[in-house]
Amino acid sequence: MTTTTLGAAAARTDWAPRALAALRIVTGVLFLAHGLIKLAGFPEGAEPGQQPLFTLFGIGGLMELVGGVLLVLGLFTRPTAFILSGMMAVAYFMFHAPASLYPAVNGGDAAILFSFIFLYLVAAGAGAWSLDGRRIRG
């Protein structure tokens, strides 16, 4: 292996925790946005709109909002991601799959992606810039 190859490998390794953190933060922001729609009706006109709290959609919205905030902060990342991964798998099979076998038709692409990103976060952890990292080190 040449020196250049070793340097490139080291650069990839150095950036991996930051790339993981960026994935975690962006996913958390997108997920909490879905919760805001269901809990606060924000932004106005977004589907499904504000939902009563003690319904399946309302509880899902609460989980999306709280889980999204925890992921953005990188706090309790693994257990949060585990719960949210299961939530998205259930959401896909309850609400999307019955409409069609194909995700592009049934609108379940995001649910599948969220579920697998969360599953990856369970295995990989929070990455850089997380309260989990500070909590564990401190």
Structure description:
The chain has 138 residues and is mostly helical. It has one domain (18-137). It has six helices and no strands. It has helices spanning 3-40, 56-73, 77-96, 103-106, 109-124, 131-137. The termini are far apart.
Radius of gyration: 17 Å
Count of separate structural domains: 1
- Return the structural class: mainly alpha
Binned, the helix content reads: over 70%
Order of helices and strands: HHHHHH
Counting H and I runs of at least 4 residues, what is the number of helices? Answer: 6
Question: What's the shape?
Answer: globular
Q: Let me know the largest β-sheet.
A: none
Strand content: under 5%
Summarize the structure.
With 138 residues, this protein is mainly alpha-helical.
How do the strands and helices of this protein lay out in sequence?
Layout: H1 3-40, H2 56-73, H3 77-96, H4 103-106, H5 109-124, H6 131-137
Helix pairs in contact: 1-2, 1-5, 2-3, 3-5
